[in-house]
TrEMBL record, chain A:
Organism this protein belongs to: Trichodelitschia bisporula
GO CC entries: NatA complex
Record protein name field: N-acetyltransferase complex ARD1 subunit
Keyword Transferase on entry: yes
Pfam families, A to Z: Acetyltransf_1 (PF00583)
UniProtKB/TrEMBL annotation, chain B:
InterPro entries: NatA_aux_su, TPR-like_helical_dom_sf, TPR_rpt
TPR repeat placement: 77-110
Glycoprotein keyword on record: no
Keywords (A to Z) from UniProt: Repeat, TPR repeat, Transferase
Protein's organism: Trichodelitschia bisporula
Region called Disordered, residue ranges: 603-652
Protein's recorded name: N-terminal acetyltransferase catalytic subunit
Recorded GO CC terms: NatA complex
Pfam families for this protein: NatA_aux_su (PF12569), TPR_8 (PF13181)
Biased amino acid composition, Basic and acidic residues: 609-627, 638-647
Length: 223, 845
């Protein structure tokens, strides 16, 4: 099983995996919106061992994580959010969900400077709770009553990503290649970083398909 | 001529525009009416009124009004713009582009018209037009980076990579100071530039350029992947090795990285001399990586002989001991190699003693729990193994799954496998029941719910399937559970439901479902529209280009093919037998065969009445529902949704030109999936009926080059030649006839006797049921007196070894097609039942 970043061409089967595994579903455009706004954050697990039957067989997707950055974080802190995560029953307990999550989390920190990642999970979903809390290290944030369409409560969970941001920063410092940005006033920038100045990434400021964003989030809530 | 409005009316007109934009359509209309009272011929106001009407859903009225507006004021860019918008909203993009161009000619400075035009052009893949528009937009606002990037994308998509890079660079050169590191737009644009350099094949320069941007780039993974790729292509081995190793550290479950690393190291899986080194390489990754699968599984792909056996043994025991449920799906790809298949089989069969559980790096299990887990995993594995087509032995499979179930009678997974075995035995009825039982063992899991619905559909029980699905759908949306499944584009369900209806001869519903898939693909194509604007603003260019390339090939997706082929089949049936278009005939409740003219007429009338009755009842039911439950009236996308006026597809089925409809499905198939032989087969059937022999023969040729021995091709070849020999019926132009003759000469030389050709084919493929059927069919055309003999030989196919269930069923269908006597059919059925005692389809006959 490969773990790799999600591409637009994966969407039909990611959508299929989602509607096969979870009650919270989305139409194609919502996946496109994720894939084209934060292309680094969503990952898929692919069964590569299957020989294709026709030249047109798309990769067989057996799991995915659909993730995003919070567009306008109410706390003003840039952070990521897991929109949806699932693995086909035939491929569960292989560590796929964990690996998908870890890749996505790192990209959140590395690419978008996310300070933490949040998600919602049904209070009754023990498998997912185990995964988030015990395997990955999420903390309970709060309970959101009747979050799901059928009236079930959600656990809001979050996980700090500072270790990943630190790693990314260390790695960056290790890159010796000269950079056009660093040649001019690199000292000032490094200072910024030391002071822990907020990394502002220009995301969410200009919403071309703003309608789409809002409408979808109200119509279908994340898993 | 443009008519000037009074100052007051002018203000009112601006008000109309504003109200329209605020979607206050009623107020907008009212204000427009007021203006028109005094200025009945005011083009712009008429146009705005048309636009508003269109937004309210009165499309026809809107169009005629917009035309009127243009007649009043040909020189108004507003009128043309509105005209363009109307066409845009009805998806006639070609027409929209024309209208926009007129508008733009009248108002060259309008940024909005220019932009709208540009998006239409790229949506239609009018690259040259798009480049022109992009240049104009850039010219108007050169300070905006996105305008440079957009022009670069336009050039890139049009294939002019160096121009694309040029525009990116030109903008970069204007930067006096590098943008801050967190500037996503800059980060992406520079990476995009690097992609262009790489795509131009200038690897050296791409690497050098990457170096200058890598440190501050925000997409680390991409930078590392691109760098590694360049280094490998430049054969800079040491650095490339380091680069791929670094990638593997980040993500050790991505085969591409391992394959490239092998390449860097000069290791070749095909070369047995390299196997030891390869194996050592993969072992080196395992240390401290308990959860890593790739490095354990990959060596099984290349190892052979005893080495394979040792490695497979370790891998299997470890996974069985852990109880990894996906072990079988994970190794079955190895089964195409006979040795590997039999080795795995004998290994797992041999794990009979409980101590086998001590796999590699597993804690020593002494307690009974762990060993019983191992025993169960083994049974589960073997059940799946013997259920798989390459190693199928359904008796053994049944046996193993029963043993597993004895140990854990409440396991949903074991029941799922049991259901699957039953399906392969042909017992779709019991399979659905067992799957339903499995579902009840874990009602919170949608996966099982999905499988259950699927099995119910396979059992042609559409009603239960929908009920099952409705346990997880948003049933309050318009159209209930089914409506939600449509909104959420649940392709598999819609397709399977169509297939089930087709099996039950319910042509109208089947067609309805396949058409729905067709429509969803239109939606998916339309979905890209907003991103022409959105992505450029967001600056995520590489992802946008990926999307464009995917959209270009959208309908090559098997989801499309799978719906298009049966849809074409239905349309061809409708063409051959127009009576079928009466829903109730098509729904299989009335048969016309064997009736005389008067009886036929009566039966048809009855079918029509029945259908009208049904439609009326349906309409009443909808009305009642509407009154009773106050539905939200919105779909899952929050858009207001109309009731479907033709939920059964009766109107769809009554199309006056079924072949025209078939072509709508066929054209994308032939364009995007030309290597699909079934698509070419279908193309032949459609074109031959449309009297397009050249197109038909094109399909035939394409199919023959894909597989010269394909049974359908064989039969079509013979039919084609026969139709040529008897063209007197439908005269074709001389030139065409000449071309046809020469082409057909290539396919099947004139000198060949068709009978001899067919006999040779049948002799060559005597052990393959599909080929035998094809030969028999062909013999039927060639020799009308051969029926009895053909029937005998068809019956004989039941003695072929390993005859599949599908082939057994297809034989029976062929007898139906030949209108064979009941005695013959009964004989066949009796034999079929003996071969497939569990099969539902024979039991129900
Ligand atoms: C939740 C889900 C995504 C987990 O996927 P997965 O690939 O099987 O998970 P992993 O193999 O990565 O599991 C990692 C760890 O999570 C925990 N975990 C996973 N499934 C578990 C289960 N059924 N029970 C208890 N713990 C479980 C375990 O600690 C596991 O580690 P282990 O296997 O070494 O014990 C999957 O079960 C699923 O798709 N469920 C349906 C959809 C869903 O609920 N999605 C989550 C919505 S918020």
């Amino acid at each position: 099983m490969d773990i790799r970043v999600m591409k637009p061409s994966d969407i039909p089967h990611v959508q299929q995996a989602n509607i096969t595994n979870l009650p919270e579903n989305y139409f194609c455009k919502y996946y496109l919106y994720h894939a084209l706004t934060w292309p680094q954050l969503s990952y898929v697990a692919v069964d590569v061992s299957r020989p294709p039957k026709t030249p047109y067989d798309p990769p067989k997707i057996v799991g995915y994580v659909l993730a995003k950055m919070e567009e306008e974080p109410s706390d003003g802190i840039p952070h990521g959010h897991i929109t949806s995560l699932s693995v086909m029953r035939t491929h569960r307990r292989l560590g796929l969900a964990e690996k998908l999550m870890r890749q996505s989390q790192r990209a959140m920190a590395e690419t978008y400077g996310a300070k933490y990642v949040s998600l919602h999970v049904r209070v009754s979903n023990t498998a997912a709770l185990h995964l988030y809390r015990d395997t990955l290290g999420f903390n309970m944030d709060k309970i959101e009553a009747k979050y799901y369409a059928d009236g079930e409560d959600a656990n809001c969970m979050r996980m700090e990503l500072s270790h990943l941001r630190f790693e990314a920063e260390e790695e960056r410092k290790g890159i010796k290649d000269q950079d056009e940005g660093d040649e001019v006033g690199s000292a000032g920038k490094k200072d910024d970083d030391k002071k822990g100045k907020k990394r502002r990434v220009k995301v969410g400021r200009v919403l071309g398909v703003g309608d789409l964003v809002e409408r979808n989030e109200s119509s279908a809530k994340a898993g | 001529m443009p008519q000037p409005l009074s100052a007051k009316d002018g203000a009112a007109f601006r008000q109309v525009v504003k109200l329209y934009e605020l979607k206050q359509h009623k107020k907008a209309l009212k204000t427009a009416e007021q203006i028109l009272k005094k200025n009945p011929n005011h083009g712009d106001t008429l146009a705005m009124k048309a636009l508003t009407l269109n937004a309210q859903g009165h499309t026809d009225e809107a169009f005629s009004l917009a035309k009127l507006a243009l007649q009043q004021d040909m020189k108004s860019h507003i009128c043309w713009h509105v005209y363009g918008l109307l066409y845009r909203s009805t998806k006639q993009l070609d027409e929209a582009i024309k209208a926009y161009k007129f508008a733009l000619r009248l108002e060259p400075e309008s940024a909005q018209i220019q932009r709208d035009l540009a998006f239409l052009q790229i949506q239609m893949r009018d690259y040259n037009g798009y480049i022109e528009s992009r240049k104009a937009i850039l010219h108007a606002r050169p300070a905006l980076r996105q305008n440079w990037t957009a022009l670069a994308v336009a050039c890139h998509l049009a294939g002019d990579l160096s121009a694309a890079e040029h525009y990116l660079k030109t903008y970069e050169d204007t930067l006096k100071q590098p943008p801050p590191r967190t500037d996503m737009e800059h980060s992406e644009a520079s990476l995009y530039r690097n992609v262009l350099i790489g795509e131009m094949g200038e690897v050296e320069r791409a690497l050098a350029h990457l170096k200058t941007i890598s440190r501050n780039n925000l997409d680390r993974t991409a930078v590392m992947e691109m760098r590694a790729d360049y280094l490998l292509r430049l054969d800079r081995k040491d650095e490339a090795e380091e680069a791929y190793r670094a990638l593997i550290v980040r993500n050790n479950e991505y085969r591409l990285y391992y394959e490239k690393l092998e390449k860097v190291l000069g290791l070749d899986r095909e070369n047995p001399d390299d196997h030891a080194e390869l194996a050592a390489l993969y072992t080196s990754f395992l240390e401290g990586n308990h959860r890593l699968d790739a490095a354990r599984r990959i060596p099984l792909d290349f190892l052979r002989g005893d080495e394979f056996k040792t490695a497979a043994d370790k891998y299997l025991r470890r996974s069985l001991a852990k109880g990894v449920p996906s072990l079988f799906p994970n190794v079955k790809a190895l089964y195409s190699d006979d040795f590997k298949r039999t080795t795995i089989q004998s290994l797992v069969e041999g794990y009979t003693s409980e101590t086998q559980a001590d796999g590699e790096d597993m804690p020593q299990h002494t307690n009974g729990d762990a060993s019983s887990k191992f025993v169960q995993s083994r049974l589960y594995f073997l059940a799946q193994h013997y259920n798989y087509f390459r190693s199928r032995n359904l008796k053994k499979a049944t046996d193993f799954i029963s043993q597993a179930l004895e140990m854990d009678p409440k396991s949903p997974d074991y029941h799922m496998t049991k259901a699957r075995i039953l399906k392969h035995l042909g017992d779709v009825e019991q399979a659905a029941e067992v799957m339903s039982f499995a579902r009840e063992l874990d009602t919170k899991d949608r996966y099982i719910n999905t499988k259950c619905a699927k099995y119910q559909l396979r059992n042609n029980d559409c009603e239960s399937a929908l009920k099952t699905m409705s346990l997880f759908t948003r049933n309050e949306s318009v159209g209930g559970a089914l409506g939600d499944l449509h909104d959420m584009q649940c392709m598999w369900y819609i397709t399977e439901d169509g297939e089930a209806n087709l099996r039950m001869d319910k042509l109208s519903l089947a067609l309805k479902r396949f058409k729905c898939i067709y429509d969803i693909f239109d939606v998916w194509q339309e979905d890209q529209f907003d991103f022409h604007y959105f992505s450029i603003r967001k600056g995520q260019i590489r992802a946008y280009v990926d999307m464009m390339r995917w959209e270009d090939q959208l309908r090559s997706h098997p989801f499309f093919t799978r719906a298009a082929l049966p849809a074409i089949k239905i349309y061809v049936m409708l063409h051959d037998n127009p009576d079928l278009s009466h829903g109730h005939l098509a729904n299989g409740s009335i048969k016309l065969e064997g009736l005389d003219a008067a009886e036929r007429k009566r039966a048809l009338k009855k079918a029509k009445r029945e259908q009208e009755r049904l439609e009326k009842a349906e309409a009443e039911k909808r009305e009642a529902e509407k009154k009773q439950t106050k539905k939200t009236g919105t779909g899952g996308d929050g858009e207001p949704k109309k009731e479907d006026p033709d939920p059964h597809g009766f109107q769809l089925l009554q199309t006056p030109a079924p072949l025209d409809e078939a072509v709508k499905f066929l054209t994308p198939l032939l364009e995007f999936a030309p290597k699909n032989i079934t698509a070419q087969n279908a193309g032949f059937e459609v074109f031959i009926r449309r009297n397009k022999p050249l197109l038909a023969v094109k399909c035939l040729r394409a199919a023959k080059s894909l597989d010269p021995e394909d049974p359908v091709v064989h039969e079509q070849l013979i039919r084609f030649r026969r139709s040529l020999d008897s063209t007197s019926a439908s005269p074709i132009p001389d030139k065409v006839a000449q071309v046809l003759k020469s082409v057909s000469q290539d396919l099947l030389p004139d000198s060949t006797s068709l009978t001899a050709f067919n006999d040779a084919f049948m002799a060559k493929h005597a052990s393959s049921a599909p080929h035998v059927r094809s030969g028999l069919r062909a013999r039927g055309y060639l020799d009308a007196s051969s029926k009895e003999r053909n029937e005998e030989e068809l019956l004989a196919t039941l003695d072929l070894v390993d005859l599949s269930l599908e082939d057994t069923q297809a034989g029976l269908e062929l007898l139906g097609e030949w209108k064979s006597s009941k005695a013959v059919q009964d004989e066949y059925l009796a034999k079929a039942k003996a071969l497939w005692p569990e099969a539902t389809s024979f039991k129900r006959r």
